[in-house]
Each structure stands twice: as structure tokens, then as C-alpha cells.
Amino acid sequence: xxxxxxxxxxxPLLIAYSLLLAYWMLWGYGRTRLLEYSYNIIPxxxxxxxxxxxxxxxxxxIAGNIGVFLPFGxxxxxxxxxxFAKTIAYFLPGILLxxxxxxxxxxxSLDVDDVILNTIxxxxxxGLLRTIGYIWRRADR
Length: 141
Prior knowledge:
Blueprint: H1 2-26, E1 39-40, H2 47-50, H3 56-67, H4 70-80, H5 84-105, E2 110-111, H6 112-140
Parallel strand pairs: 1-2
Helix pairs in contact: 1-4, 3-6, 4-5, 4-6, 5-6
InterPro entries: Teicoplanin_resist-assoc, VanZ-like
Protein name: Glycopeptide antibiotics resistance protein
Domain VanZ-like: 15-131
């Protein structure tokens, strides 16, 4: 009964949040079309500019790219009843597609560091889900 309940509300939330995030990444916050293609395919090249964090821009970039993707670490495993590896396997094609759309439409940049930070966010969200589940199971004993 519990898993059926989780599936019932997790799918609509996952779809809605995915659409909201796509909006934010392509049109939100006053995004306009860049004149040139923007990309970074060298891991940690962008992150190195922000660590250590000495400005609000750096904090927003690092924390934002992690925090905004936490819900996927909760919603994906609930929606598809997946473990850690399957959650990441479902997440990665989606974020790579979104990064490619940003590049092609020039409404942002394709940045491998964003993918790394976004995936860390999913991992943290998954860890929080597992921790909360563990606490609830312990409380039911």
C-alpha cells in the first residue's frame, strides 16, 4: 500500500518539477539567447573559479546547482522504485539532454561541471530519502 501511494504522488511531482526546472534553465531569470555557443567540457574547470567560495555569485553557482537537483534524488527513486545506481542512470540522460538543449538554443551553456554538481545534488537527495526512510522504519518498531 505504501509504495503504491508513493508512486501516485511522486510521478506528477517529478513531471511538474522537471518542467519547472526546464523552464528555469531555458527561459527563467531573464535568460536571453547568447550570441555565441557557450560550453565547458573540461571537468572542474568552472568549479575551480568558484572554490573557495568568496562571493555571492560563487555561492549561488555551487549551492544552486546542487540544491535545485535535490528533489530528483527523492522523486526519481520514489517514482520508479529504484535504488541508487538506477536513480543516477535515469537522471544522467535527462540532465545531459537539458545541457545539450541549452547549448543548441544558446540559452545557457553546456557545462560538464554543472552536470557534476547536479549529480551531487541528486546523490544528496537520495541520501536524505534513505535516511528519512531509515528513521521512519526505526520509529515504527
